[in-house]
Amino acid sequence: MLSIIGFAIIASIATLLILGRIAPVVGMTVIPTIGAFLAGFSPSDIGGFFDSGLESVLDVAVMLVFAILFFGIMNDVRLFNPLINVMVRVSRGNVVGVAVVTVLIGVFCHLDGSGATSYLIAIPALLPLYKRLGMSPYLLMLLLSTSMAILNMLPWGGPVGRAAASTGHDPVELWHGLIPLQAVGVVLLMGMATLLGLREKRRIARRAPAQVPAMAGAGAGAGGADGPTASGVTSTGSAGGDSDGVEEGAGEPEKLHGPYLPLFNGLLVLAVLGLLVADVLPSGMVFMLGLSAALVVNYPKVSDQMERIRAHGGGALGTGAIILAAGCFLGILTESGMLRSLAGDMIAVLPDAVVPYLHLIVGVLGMPFELVLSTDAHYFALLPLVHDVSTQLGIGSITVVYTVLIGNVIGTYISPFNASLWLGIGLAGVDMGKHIRYSFLPMWAFSLVMLLAAVLLGVITL
Q1: CA distance 177 to 244
Q2: Buried b / exposed e across 133-159, counting CB within 10 Å, b at 16+?
């Protein structure tokens, strides 16, 4: 009976999340509670399950909330804009160089873990340059999305936070093991960008060799008004019309930015990342201290500080609420014995030859799963099940988590269930279906290469 009810809870949540019929917070709170009552547990039992589950995810929720606020402030104060502008200028006129720079810009823009922010910064800076050179905006989406996915392995990124919450690991500890893979992944992606850039250069030469404009001199900026357009989007550059990159503050209220203090803010980011790597303080406390310093120095007025918190509070609170709701879901399924019962029955039903490799199968298929599973469904419904089945067979918990996470994370920004991807699609003026067709095979191949690299680096042990 516990297995049946546990399966019904997981299947209901996954189905409703896939169909977009229920918010994650509602589904992971209401459905497990109803299932627990149907299984015969008393209100006091369910309250105990909830307390246990909440305790297991509280640190993750606190860290995510303050990390999103902190890096949101860093974007507000334009910390990364000069670097982006320099990279855009350096790559001007070179198709392969633009492709490689797209990867680097995606990496720097996604330090806050917010897909929406990354697209908002990177696409207006790069799209006019792509149009000017006749490059495909779908290549821009492919490279930018893949680089953001690699950075999504940060502890405040959605997949790592969710994986940690659903399996009881600390997200910063998970990240420590993933740091070498992230570094290798960025290098590998730069290599892939070079190959795709060469392919794009040949495509442009075949299609219209006489129409590729020269990009010489300052007058041939990326966002010139005479640049070609695609998909009905004009090449006006970023807000304010700076042709070479991200306009620093044009058309926005002064209190949004505050004083321009790149040295202080750069050192602050390095200090925060250093403390996280050193693991000398709880991760939530590190981001609380970092956020406090950023607010006090960049926004001396209390009213401005509160306005910045309110500006980024929606995304931070939404993510934190999902993690806390996941605590309710996981507390009920774990403490009631449903998950263990379901895992045991799955082992009995699955062919003996398949069960030991279940986590590897799910990891390899992680990319295609993104087309039918939302991130929440993948990490809060599928991962706990695979984790319990695999660990009961003696496979290390961390190996299971890394395998499922690495196999899935690259597909985050090809999933139609990802709201921020729709923002990127709109900014780039491209079609979702064509983006999936253009990017799916390269991103899946890159995902498999990342899994192989993880094995070679010892991140995943076979």
Answers
A1: 37
A2: bbbbbbbbbbbbbbbbbbbbbbbbbbb
DSSP string covering 357-413, please?
Answer: GHHHHHHHTHHHHTTTS-HHHIIIIIHHHHHHHHHHTT--HHHHHHHHHHHHHGGGG
Q: What is the DSSP string of 2-38?
A: HHHHHHHHHHHHHHHHHHT-S-HHHHHHHHHHHHHHH
Q: How many helices (H) and strands (E) does the chain have?
A: 21, 0
pTM (2 d.p.):
0.63
In the numeric block, which tokens belong to residue 318?
């939404």
Rounded distance, CA 27 to CA 24, Å?
5
**pLDDT one-digit tens code per residue, 52-103:** 888 877 877 787 788 778 877 887 887 767 766 676 677 666 889 889 989 9
Gyration radius of the chain's alpha carbons: 23
Q: What amino acid occupies position 168? A: G
d(CA 368, CA 411) in angstroms, rounded, equals: 8
C-beta neighbour count of 178 within 10 angstroms: 23
CA distances from 186 to 103, 104, 105, 447, 455 (A): 8, 8, 11, 12, 17
Give the other-Cβ count within 10 Å of 168's Cβ.
15
Q: How far apart are CA 326 and CA 22, in angstroms?
A: 14
Select from 410, 333, 342 the least CA-distant residue to 370. 410
Per the DSSP assignment, residues forming a β-bridge with 233 are 230
Q: Which amino acid is at 451?
A: L
Nearest to 336 by CA among 59, 14, 42: 42
pLDDT tens by residue, 334-392: 788 887 777 667 666 777 788 788 889 889 988 888 776 667 777 877 888 888 888 88
177 and 401 in contact (C-beta within 8 Å)? Answer: no
Q: 3-state DSSP call for residue 233?
A: strand
